[in-house]
Structures are given as C-alpha cells and as structure tokens.
C-alpha cells in the first residue's frame, strides 16, 4: 500500500468555536471551502493540535472527521483525519470502523502513552487501523520518556520498524531534528511513503528539498492564504530562488519572527485567522487565547503580511 503521492503544502485544519464554546461549523465549512477550492490544495489534514481534537468530544471528532472527508471528496481531494487523543487500542479500532465509511485517505496516529523502551506497544497501537482497512499516517513527534518525563526522539530501530510497515502511507515528521528528518526521508525512499515535515517553516523546507529531496510539508504561514498554495508549492519544489527569497522576506519571516515567536504557534495562528475574518477569537478552556487588546499590538505586522500576499494573488 505504501506509495509516494503527496506534493507541496499539506493543509492542516484549524478549529473554530462560537461564543458558547460549541464548534463553529459554519466558519469551519467556509474555511474548508476556501482551501479546497484553491488549485494548490490537494490534501486537508485534521489533527490533534491544530484541529483541537484534544478539546473535542468523541462525537464532535467523528462529526469533524466526517465533514472533512465529505468536503474533500466533493472537490476530488484527500482528507487525513486524526483520532481521540486518550484512547486504548480497542477504542481506536472502534473509532476506525466508525469513520471508515467516510473514506479518509489516512488516519493520523499519535501514540498517547509514555515510552518505556518497549517497541511492541508503539507498534501495536500504530498497527491498529490496519484491522479496519484504513491506511496510517504516523504522527512522529517526540516521545515522552517513561523514565524521567523528558522529550526524546524515536529510536532509529523503532522508527525503521514502524515506517517499513506496508500500511503506513505517510509520516508527519515532527521531531524538529534535522538528523531524524534526514533519516525519515531516506526511509521514505526505501519504503515508498510520504514525509510531511512540520516545524522550521519555509526556510527549513527550502533546505530539506535541496539537500534531501523533500516533497511535501505542513503549511504554516499558508494557513492564512490557501489561495497562494499553488504558487508557493511550485516555487519551493522548483527551487525558484527569487520567489523563495521574496516569500520568506515578505511573508514567512515577518509572520514567524515578528508575530508567532512572540505569542506561540497555536495561539498565534488562531489570532491571525481571526484577524483575517475567518473565525472568532475564542478557544475552549484551558486552551489559552490571545486577548484582543494584545492582538492589536501586532496589527501593523499582520497588515504588512496581508498586503504582501495581495501582490501575488
């Protein structure tokens, strides 16, 4: 089943809420429509953090997953969905059977326990969707050590054994460690799965394409401008130096260096999407939210980024 098929920016899905903290399905559908109608967006990706699966109930997760799959299918595109965060293997399997009817491209599997050096527990959890006939995207973020609580990279033997399974169709490479990333990309060429890099922005993507042949990455600043997906993806995949320099100078660097670095990714991207009119500035507690008065301090920066994006639409 393994295959290399994904190219360019993979669009992670944010989550929007109403004032009463219910899911704002109207805003979510509007944003998904904006993404899916953009020629450069081939895949939407619902996940534990950006899509706030950790703040949603089981029934809401099923409904959001259903919505993503159905909207992607209606545009002849792909949807990757997540799963409830705190879940046993048997509960994960039951969830997979429930959502299989919506035909997700893959389910993003995030190991929810601490790691004690026992590989089989990780392998069994990630292998669970195979029993329901759903391909897996491995969410390979740092593991939590069961010995001292520290964040650790996946051991190379565990990484190899998990990613060589023929039901693994992709990996969200979230170690933010270039050595692990290079190892994962090398494995992808041997076992024919896609590597979606997260972390480090377009500047890191540029180097990984050049030095390791990376083909796809998770969107960051492009969450704000899905209509630019085709131009940006092609510019980076073709290593158009003039375009990449312009994009990083006018959009990427101001966004991350002058805004995100001051407020944090999960707080910042929601605030920026609010500023662009996509959603209300609301989260479900205990997820923090940037106060409107604090957001005002960044108006000039965000306006500058928006004006730059307008020039290449």
What does this structure look like?
This protein is α/β, with parallel strands linked by helices and 313 residues long. It has one domain (8-238): Alpha-Beta Barrel (TIM Barrel), CATH 3.20.20. The chain has twelve helices and ten strands. It has helices at 25-36, 58-74, 89-99, 119-127, 156-163, 178-191, 201-212, 229-237, 241-263, 265-275, 292-295, 299-311; strands at residues 8-12, 43-45, 78-81, 106-109, 136-141, 143-144, 151-152, 168-174, 194-197, 216-218. The relative contact order is 0.13. The two termini are 37 Å apart. The model has no long low-confidence stretch (mean pLDDT 97). The strands form two sheets. An eight-stranded parallel barrel has the order 1-2-3-4-5-8-9-10, surrounded by five helices. It has a two-stranded antiparallel sheet with strand order 6-7. Helix 9 runs antiparallel to helix 12. Helices cover 46% and strands 13% of the residues. Helix 1 links the parallel strand 1 and strand 2 (43-45).
Key features of this structure:
single chain; globular; 8-stranded parallel beta barrel; TIM Barrel; 12 helices; alpha/beta; 313 residues; two-stranded antiparallel sheet
Helix and strand arrangement:
Elements: E1 8-12, H1 25-36, E2 43-45, H2 58-74, E3 78-81, H3 89-99, E4 106-109, H4 119-127, E5 136-141, E6 143-144, E7 151-152, H5 156-163, E8 168-174, H6 178-191, E9 194-197, H7 201-212, E10 216-218, H8 229-237, H9 241-263, H10 265-275, H11 292-295, H12 299-311
Parallel strand pairs: 1-2, 1-10, 2-3, 3-4, 4-5, 5-8, 8-9, 9-10
Antiparallel strand pairs: 6-7
Helix pairs in contact: 1-2, 5-6, 7-9, 9-10, 9-12
